[in-house]
Amino acid sequence: MAGPAKASNGKDGMRIDPALVHELAQLLTDNGLTEIEVEDGDRKIRVQRNLFAGSAAAPAQAAAPAPQPMMAPPMHAEAPVGDVGGESVRSPMVGTAFLSSEPGAAPFVSSGDTVKAGDTLLIVEAMKVMNPITAPRGGVVKQILVENGQPVEFDQPLVLLA
């Protein structure tokens, strides 16, 4: 990704790109993420920020499952107890949610809209890749559970469908 500066860890000859590690750490900070992982052939780099128990994001991190591949299909499950009912469309990755295709554009969907299976509900941006999150089935958007530009965790509910 970035500059030619490389270092070896001395054990197995794996070459580490300090600029790449720095860029991944900056993505954590910029997007309020707790962990990011990149795989390139045999090389795998994971940058993780440990949060203290007093942090608001710590409970979500403690219960988060292992990261999934970037192209994983959206996860779907029944809404948690206390919600207004329906099926929640969940984030297949850690990233940033965007409700429209560009700043100032109309959102893809709003509460009360009728959608068909495959309609784009929102976008989750991860490592500068825009990943459309689509409706798993036709229905009515009951509630949008995230704000535009909000960081999201893996398996976080994004939209509630009836």
TrEMBL record:
Instruction: Give all residue intervals belonging to the Lipoyl-binding domain.
Output: 86-162
**Carries keyword tRNA processing?**
no
Domain of life from the UniProt record: Bacteria
Query: Which InterPro entries does this one have?
Result: AcCoA_biotinCC, Biotin_BS, Biotin_Carboxyl_Carrier/Decarb, Biotin_lipoyl, Single_hybrid_motif
The biological pathway it contributes to is:
Lipid metabolism; fatty acid biosynthesis
Keywords tagged on the record: Biotin, Fatty acid biosynthesis, Fatty acid metabolism, Ligase, Lipid biosynthesis, Lipid metabolism
The record, for Gene3D superfamilies, names: 2.40.50.100
What function does the entry list?
This protein is a component of the acetyl coenzyme A carboxylase complex; first, biotin carboxylase catalyzes the carboxylation of the carrier protein and then the transcarboxylase transfers the carboxyl group to form malonyl-CoA.
Q: What is this protein called?
A: Biotin carboxyl carrier protein of acetyl-CoA carboxylase
Provide the species name. Sphingomonas anseongensis
